[in-house]
Amino acid sequence: MPTTYRRVATRFVPSVALLATLATAACAADTSTPLTGRQKAVQSRSDSVAMKNCAAQCTGDIDGAKYTIKLPQKWNGTLLLYSHGYRFAAPAPPTFSAVETNAQVTSTDSDGSGSDELSQKLLSEGYALAGSSYKSNGWAVGDGVSAGEQLHDKFVSLVGKPNRTYVWGDSLGGLITQIIAEKNPAWVDGAAPMCGAVAGPNYNFDVALDVAFAVKALVDPQLKLTGYSSAEDAAANWTHAEKAVVKAASDISGGGTAKVLFIAALVNAPTATGTYDGHDVTSQVKARVEALLTALAFGTSGRYELEQRVGGDPSQNTDANYPARIDAAENQLISTVGGSVTKLESALASLPRVSADTAARTAIEKLGDTTGQLSAPTVTLHTEADPLVLVQNESVLAARTRVAGRSGQLVQLFIAPPATFSESTGAPYGAGHCNFSMGQRLGLISVLDNWVRRSAYPVQSGLVSAIGDGYAPVFAPGPWPGDEKG
C-alpha cells in the first residue's frame, strides 16, 4: 500500500444477469486465434499427466525453509502451491503457543504430512500439493514470497512442469499468495487468497494501532504503544491490557461497556466471532472484546517483531478522523449502555497522536504489498465477521484492481455465519478468522479450476452450488475504517 492514502469505495457486486452475460460473452469469444503452448496445457482436459516421483526429496529444506510435496496416484496436471498464515516469532498472546516451523500443504494440514481430510480429498481429485514454511516467522512477507517461488521451481525440477499452477493461502499467506501471483504471470494460472491481509501492511497495522491507541486513552493508560524492549515486554503489555478491557466490558454503570463498544466502532470490529454469535447486546459486547484482544495481540507482540524487522514503528494515526468513524447506529448503541460519544471522543483527543518512523513505513512496504495488477483469474474467500483480518481488506483489493483496470480477473466470495450458534461449539463457518468449512475450501478450488481450465466465469448459480451453505451472494464489505485519510 502506498503511504499516500486514497478513498476506498464499497465493493461493486455484479448482478446475476451481468455475470451471466459475462460468462456468455467469454464462451462466445473468437476462437480462431491459435492457442499458445501454455494455453493448450492450461486448458488440457487430461486427468492423467506424467510425473516423476520425488520420493525422499518430496520433503526437505530450501534456504532455511522446510518444504513438503504430496503427489496423487494419478495427476490432473495441476499444482496447488500453499502459503501458510502468520506465525509469531515467539510465544505470544492470546494462546502463547509454541513457535511453529513446519511446512503445510493445505489450510488444515498441521504437520506437512497431508494426512488431514482436506489434503486427502484434493489428492484424491488428482491435485499435487506443495507448501513451505518461511525462513523466519513474524511479518515474513518477503520470505514467504521467496519460499513459494523457490518451491515452485523445486517442484518443476523434481516432479515435472505442471499444466497449470494455482497459488492459495490463508491470512498473511493470502497476502503472500496475491503477491506471488502478481509477480509471476509466467507460471501462475490462478490465485485463491483466503481471509487474506490483501490491503497490505500499513492498512492492517494502522488499524491495530487505532485499537491500542483507544485502549490506552480510555481503558489502560499504562499500555505502551510502540518501542517494546523485548518480546516479553510486548506480551506483558497485552496481558495488562487484556485484564483492563475485560473488566471495563462488564462495567455498565461505570461506563466501561460503552468504552469497549466505542473502541470497537472505531475499527469496525465485527459483532460476531467464532465464539459469539452477536444475537443480542451481551453477545455483541463479548464478541467485540474478543476482537479487540485479538487485534491487540498484533498491536503488541506482532508490532514488536515488525519493529525489529523494519527498524522502527511504521504505523501512524496522525491523520485519523476518529469522530467520523462513529455512525448513527453505533452512537445509539453506545448511548443505550449509558455512554456519551462526545465525551469519549474528547478523552480520545487528549492523547497525543503517533507518528510513524518514515524509513520504517517505507521498509514495510518494500517487504511486499498488493497492486491490483491481476494477470490470472483470482477468487478470494473471506468470512463476513473476521476479528483479525478485517473483511474490508477485500474492499481495498477491489479498489486497487479497478484502478489497474483488472476487475474482470477478480471474483470475491463471502461466507456468512448462521444467525445463531452455541458458544460451546462455536461458529461452523462465517465468523472468526479463516473459519471456513472443508466444503467451502474445496468449492473455492473447484470454482477457480473451472474458470481457469474451462473458461467458465463464475456465475451465481454455480457459486451457490460449489460453495454451499454460508455463501453470501449479496454481501459487500464497506470501506476501510478510516477512509477519511483519502
From TrEMBL:
This is Lysophospholipase. Residues 1-28 form the signal peptide. It comes from the Bacteria. Keywords: Signal. The keyword Signal applies. InterPro entries: AB_hydrolase_fold (IPR029058). Gene3D superfamilies: alpha/beta hydrolase. It comes from Jatrophihabitans telluris.
